[in-house]
Design goal:
The protein is mainly α and 196 residues long. 54% of the residues lie in helices and 9% in strands. The protein has 5 helices and 3 strands; from the N terminus they run αββααβαα. The protein has a 3-stranded antiparallel beta sheet. A hairpin with a 4-residue loop joins strand 1 and strand 2. The two termini are 27 Å apart.
């Protein structure tokens, strides 16, 4: 039984690792391509101008908020990634594995910029290069975080917990938990004292 649990644990962390590594690798590669081919002064338009490729160095958060507090965003991102890795130990289902992988990979992609790009460690600017109308310029790491967040919302609306069980709901009529817990409680009342 322990071997089965160990195998499941390896598969779970394998899925999270792959789903984190893919967007991280694509993000880093596309940023290098963007640095070599695009510029803020001369964006490349495609799809009739709906999609543009323009190079932007962002030392702040979204919409360039907080450009003087780059180190704070770096520290916060490191704390968030550490927290996600800690919580990810409880993941038992593929959906949440994909969610945590995308979130960790996306956050790591931008953290790499913060740590290793000029002007100094933890002060580096994030490279953004994808532009849509009425939206700030973003990158593949940002896309991974958004997709991970959207999938997390799906899991929450479907009431799927990290271990794959359905989140218990209260019955509107009886006020008792639905599912096996409520049924067992009713059964035990009907049987009297019973053995403990």
């Amino acid at each position: 039984m322990s071997e089965s649990n160990e195998a499941r644990s390896r598969r779970r962390f394998g899925l999270i690792a792959v789903m984190a590594a893919l967007p991280l690798a694509v993000d880093l590669a596309t940023k290098q391509i963007a640095l070599a081919n695009f510029s803020p002064a001369d964006p490349v338009s495609t799809l009739g101008g709906v999609l543009k490729f323009t190079l932007v160095s962002n030392s702040g958060a979204a919409f360039s908020v907080g450009e003087d507090a780059t180190w704070l965003f770096s520290a916060a991102k490191l704390i968030v990634i550490t927290g996600m890795l800690w919580v990810a130990r409880r993941v038992r289902v593929p959906l949440w594995g994909v969610v945590f992988g995308l979130l960790i990979g996306g956050a790591a992609g931008n953290l790499v910029d913060r740590v290793f790009r000029p002007p100094s460690p933890l002060q580096g600017a994030v490279i953004d290069w994808i532009q849509l109308p009425y939206w700030p310029v973003f990158n593949i790491a940002d896309m991974a975080v958004v997709c991970g967040g959207a999938l997390a919302m799906v899991a929450v609306f479907r009431r799927i917990s990290l271990d794959g069980s359905l989140v218990a709901e209260k019955s509107a009529e009886t006020g008792k938990p639905s599912g096996p817990e409520g049924k067992n409680a009713d059964d035990s009342k009907g049987k009297g004292q019973g053995s403990s």
